[in-house]
Amino acid sequence: MSAFEQVALPTVPHAVVVTEADGTRLARGARAQSFPWASVTKLLTATATLVAVSRHLVDLDEPAGPEGSTVRHLLAHASGVGMDSPEPLSAPGRRRIYSNAGFEILARHVAEATGTDFADWLEQTVLVPLGLSSVVLEGSPAHGARGNAEDLAAFARELLDPQVLPPGVLAEATTVQFPGLTGVLPGFGRQDPNDWGLGFEIRGGKTPHWTGTRNSPATFGHFGQSGSFLWVDPQVHLAAVYLGAEPFGPWAADLWPRLSDAALSDLR
């Protein structure tokens, strides 16, 4: 039995998939069942925004959000707005303040720039091209998507071998933006620095963290309070996703790193 198979998983419905760019390598659980993605939704919203950037409909450095803030600031949680309020708590570029409100401002900005409702823009530019037929955006572009693990893994494969995004755009998106900013990683406390790309959290040297000790510092992705995650480790060309019915809690902070390490041990 592999290390991945030996890790005990929750008794509630769940699904986990480990994939390479050309297909699934390891999988367990209810891969066709739909679950909420919570803040993993931000990766979809970031990708749809970056498609608009690649089509020259949006510029990363154009004003958006509070005074002095840009699209780049909003994507990188560096605009200064609070978690759930559009009111700024800091000047742009000074602190990494994780913000749902910032992504909602961002989505409205993209809708204005493209002349398309954001949910429709996401569907046209990301969901349909990648064949993510189970995925729907219900409400907030910061945390309102749901879908199954098969489609989340397909989205992860796009991040391993981009087809919708130009590779150069994805490379910039997964490079640290506004280096050196400190901030709180929800569920894991203050991180110094709290590295982030353009919508993608970057592992760097963060500790504690929800990815494994075997994950490289270049690993990027996101986790959600619904009990969801997606990470991509470009150094080993692997990605992993998890969805389930149990909200994030201490169980996830314990399980996810062990599960990730087991998969990397089996496949590296």
Automatic annotation (TrEMBL):
Pfam families: Beta-lactamase (PF00144). SUPFAM superfamilies: beta-lactamase/transpeptidase-like (SSF56601). Residues 34-248 form the Beta-lactamase-related domain. It comes from Georgenia wutianyii. This is Beta-lactamase family protein. Gene3D superfamilies: DD-peptidase/beta-lactamase superfamily.
